[in-house]
Structure formats: C-alpha cells, structure tokens
Amino acid sequence: MITLLNNIELEEIRDDFPVLNQHVHGQHLIYFDNAATSQKPRQVIDAITDYYQRYNANVHRGIHALAERATREYELARQKVARFIHAESPEQIIFTSGATAGINLVAQSWARTNLRPGDEILLTWMEHHSNTVPWYQVAAQTGAVITRIELNADGILAVPEIGPRTKLVAVTHASNVLGTINPVRELADAAHKVGAVILVDGAQSLPHLPIDVQALDCDFLVFSGHKMLGPTGSGALYGKRHLLEAMPPFLGGGEMIREVTPTGFTCNDLPYKFEAGTPAIAEAIGLGAAVDYLQRIGMEKIRRHEIEITQYAMDRLCEFVEVIIYGPLKAEQRSGLVAFTFSDIHPHDLATFFDQHGIAIRAGHHCAMPLHKKLRLAATARASFYLYNTRDEIDTFIAALAAAKKFFGACPTGRALGF
Ligand code: 7TS
Questions:
Q1: Where would I find the H helices in 107-222?
Q2: Distance CA 414, CA 323 (A)
Q3: Do 228 and 207 form a contact (C-beta atoms < 8 A)?
Q4: Are 271 and 279 in contact (CB under 8 A)?
Q5: Ligand 1 centroid to 259 CA: how many Å?
Q6: What's phi and psi for 108, nearest 5 deg?
Q7: Dist CA 64 CA 164 (whole Å)
Q8: pTM, whole model, 2 decimals?
Q9: What CATH number did the domain enclosing 108 receive?
C-alpha cells in the first residue's frame, strides 16, 4: 500500500535541500515555483562536485582512468533514466539539454523528413511555447498545417477522432498552467490507428508521476532534468527504436559519426548519432543522482503527497470568492500546481506581494500565450508544489493572500472560465 509522506520523512527530505533553509525578505523561504525549476538535493550537488573534483574527463574517447570512469558514470546515468521511464533499452535515451532541445530534435529530424504539404500536426491549446514554436517552424519548412484539440470548460481535452491527414500528435502530458493530466495512452491509440506518431512533452509529468513509456505507447517523450531535482542543461529524448534508427542526425560534429571521409560521413549507432560534440557530462551524472533520489522515495508516494497538498491548496484558495482557479478542480486530474487569478489584482503585483512575504510563485503567461489568449487573460499567478512542500507552507501562503486582499482592496469579479 502507498502511504503519504509522514512529517518525519518530510523533515528528512527538507534537510536534503540546503536552499530551503534560508530567509527571504526576513521571512522563511517558501518555494512554490517548482514548475519553473525544482530545487536540488545535496545528493545531486555532491554528484556534480564529485565529478569535477575526482574524475573530470571527456567521455567515449580517453583510454586513461579518469576518462574511463567519466564514461562509465555517464552511461550509468543513461541506464538509470531508461529504467526510470521503463524504456526498452538505454540506447533509446538521447541526452539533451532539456525538453525544448528534445522537441527541436524531433521537429528538425523526424518531422522535417516525414511531413509533406497539407499533412497535419495536431497540438492542444495548452502547449508550452517549446511544444508550439518548433512545429510552427517545421510547418513553414514542410507545408504542414497546425490543428488543435479543443478543451472543455474544466480545461480537459475532448479526445477527438484523429483524421487520416494527421501525421504527428504533439501533446503535453501535464499542463504547466491548467495542471491537467492528459490521456496520453488514448491519444496514442487514436494516433496509431491512422498511422500517425505521438510525441509526449513530459516536462511537467516526469518529475511528479510514475511514467512507463511502454504502457503509454508513445513514440517520443521529452523531459527536462532541472524540473525533477536534476541540474539545468540536463534532460533526454526517448524514442521508439525503429523511428530513431530511421531518423537523420540533427547536429553534426564529433561523437555522432562512425567515419568521416574527404567528402562525407557515416553515422554512429544510437544513441551517439544524436549526441554531437562533448555532452553535458556533469549534468547527466547529476540527473542520474536525481533519479536515484526520486526512486528512493518512490514516485507513487510523491504523487500521493502532491495530490494531498494540491487539493488542500485548492480548497483553501476557494475560501476566497475573488479567486478563480484554472483547470480541473480535482487534484487527481492534475499535477501539483494551481494557476489562479485574484479579483482584478494583476498577477505580477500579487507575485511581488508574495515575494515580500518570502513566498516564491510565478506570474505571467507561463510560456503558454495561445492558452491565455483562449482564456482571455493576459496573465495568471501560479503556485507549483513538489515533494518538499507542506500544508503549513500552504497555510502561510493563504495568510499572505488574505493580507494581499486587505492591501489591494480586492473585490469579487465573477468572471467565467472563458474556454
Ligand atoms: N514543456 C512544458 C510543459 C513546460 O512546462 C516547460 C517549461 C517546457 C516544456 C520547457 O522546458 P525547458 O526545460 O526546455 O525550458 N515550463 C516552465 C514553466 O512553466 N515556468 O518556467 C518554465
């Protein structure tokens, strides 16, 4: 049986994150900006330091002891990531600098060579710009067209019949604004029925939910290490082997070749075909340490904890008639974040007010401008949680919101959702 994190476990977890133990503007820091980037435990920081202090060397080329150790640890990190997402093999894990780089790789390699004029790329209204702009670029290059799956009033996808013109479905697993967890397996089945492929943006799901790429039957999945306790500049692309094998390399350079002649080159095997140049070695090793950390606690347990505190945060926010929450109202249907507006107070003013109380939230369009346009909003405020956040912190956040109400003189708006 999966139990919740108890108070002792939570204290132990919090002790692993040095950054949490500080004051901001004279108040104890409350970090609710985890959807932008998570904090890093000592174990990840130590793994990076250890690499630089003890075995800094390039990978896959040196024959000396340091190079062999660096290569071993780098490849071990790949194995850890493969196991974490239940990939069939480590060769299907391409290290990238993050979700954005993974999507661009698929756009410029798979999509650019497979799409023809009139082919459809099916997105949703809740995509991050990283899962939007690369498709606009590839549409301009190939003559493909962009279409979008509609949302219902709760910010949930209405899974459509996918038509024969659709060649690619690119969908976020969890929205960074609405929190909505999308039915990826259903979408994969619908895409595969018409011979389309599906790319899943796991930037907001992988840090928070147990992920099994084989159960999801996704063709590609991307994610960022820095949102799951790992370093910035780390992340990966997972792909089905037959697709990766058939794709041309995206970047050319060292490492990705088998042979270079005076006039041409042949490609290296997977995954090196897509890892041109010296990779982010310390970052990959740090990501491996982050995976170890998450697995030691258990993704099911982390998920239960986040459901619990997210539901608590939403319930407490609903005590204010001035608050509008965007996305599904049941925490089970969303990842651990809540985007909201508070009367007619500008979200940036609200974020500044929270900052003065030592509480870090994010305000803005969260790199999801098409969604905000659809909601007829310029911006929302967003509190996003992770395994180290507590109910007590949410109580402090709610007390700060009550203070903001007094300070700004908020009144109810009664604005509707507006999908
Ligand atoms: N996809 C989703 C769903 C995201 O939320 C983000 C980043 C990305 C892709 C891009 O990730 P990157 O690591 O390659 O930059 N989202 C956010 C956010 O919500 N606030 O700051 C970054």
A1: 112-114, 133-142, 184-193, 213-216
A2: 9
A3: yes
A4: no
A5: 36
A6: -85, -15
A7: 54
A8: 0.97
A9: 3.40.640.10
How far is Cα 314 from Cα 170, in angstroms, rounded to an integer? 29
How far is it, in rounded angstroms, from Cα 344 to Cα 387? 31
- Is residue 382 included in any domain, yes or no? yes
195 and 306 co-located in one domain: no
Active-site residue numbers?
Answer: 367
Beta strands in 270-365 (DSSP E): 323-326, 337-342, 359-360, 362-364
Looking at the fold, whether 196 and 314 belong to one and the same domain comes out as no
Give, for all 419 residues of the chain, the pLDDT tens digit: 667 889 999 999 999 999 999 999 999 999 999 999 999 999 999 999 999 999 999 999 889 999 999 999 999 999 999 999 999 999 999 999 999 999 999 999 999 999 999 999 999 999 999 999 999 999 999 999 999 999 998 999 988 889 999 999 999 999 999 999 999 999 999 999 999 999 999 999 999 999 999 999 999 999 999 999 999 999 999 999 999 999 999 999 999 999 999 999 999 999 999 999 999 999 999 999 999 999 999 999 999 999 999 999 999 999 999 999 999 989 999 999 999 999 999 999 999 999 999 999 999 999 999 999 999 999 999 999 999 999 999 999 999 999 999 999 866 554 434 33
User: Tokens standing for 17?
Assistant: 């994150």
Give me 252's structure tokens. Answer: 């050319």
Domain that holds residue 165: 44-296
DSSP 8-state class, residue 194: T
Q: Structure tokens of 265?
A: 């080159």
- Nearest residue (CA) to ligand 1, atom 5: 176
- Cα 101 to ligand 1 centre (Å): 11
**Pair 209, 196 in one domain:** yes
Q: Exposed (0-12), middle (13-18) or buried (19+): which is 140, by Cβ within 10 Å?
A: exposed
- Residues 160, 96 share a domain: yes
CA distance 124 to 169: 9
Please count the structural domains in the chain: 2
* C-alpha 17 to ligand 1 mean position (Å): 22
Answer for the pair 170, 122: CB distance below 8 angstroms, yes or no: yes
Q: List C-alpha distances in Å: 256 to 55, 94, 275, 278, 305.
A: 23, 12, 6, 10, 42
- How many Å apart are CA 71 and CA 76, to the nearest integer? 8
Instruction: Ligand 1 pocket test: pick from 126, 130, 131 the residue with the most ligand atoms within 8 Å of its Cβ.
Output: 130
